Amino acid sequence: MRRSLPSLVLALLVALGPLTLAPSATAADVHPEWGSTSAPDTTLKQGCRGYAYTYAVTPPDGDWMLETFLIGPHGKPHGSDYFITSDPLTGTGSWRLCRRSTRGGTYTIRAKLSVINGGDYVEGWLPESTFHLHKPHR
Q1: CA dist., res. 39 & res. 37, Å (int)
Q2: The domain spanning residue 99 has which CATH number?
Q3: How many structural domains does the chain have?
Q4: 79 is a domain residue
Q5: I need a surface site. Which of 4, 79, 113, 135 has the fewest CB within 10 A?
Q6: How confident is the model at residue 59, as a pLDDT?
Q7: Torsion angle in degrees (nearest 10) through CA of 118, 90, 109, 53
Q8: Nearest Cα to 109, choosing from 65, 74, 79, 64?
Q9: Taking the chain, what is the end-to-end CA distance rounded to the nearest angstrom?
Q10: pLDDT at 3
């Protein structure tokens, strides 16, 4: 892991229970006022590479955790990541993808924001964002 797990993450994980890979959110669960994600359209490069995406959050008061999920064509999960209160409110993450095992198409980033403030706990989804990965022409 790229950082130690402070008590905030442990408390959020206990509150969340077992994490599932990004079920679809209902309209009532989506909070555009809490932030967004994005990634540029790009062409898959030879070998395995990191493909960057950005996030920006404006969480409610409290300690927050942002979970991001990459969903590929036909709903296939391709990866996940997370950011916590000690991370910047705006930042960059990356997905490591290998051209040989990754198909071209439309990819979706789903992001779930969880906030704990004292005894209060809220969670919701950011609006989904999409980008296209293209296989190179031969």
Answers
A1: 7
A2: 2.60.40.2550
A3: 1
A4: yes
A5: 4
A6: 96
A7: -150
A8: 79
A9: 37
A10: 44
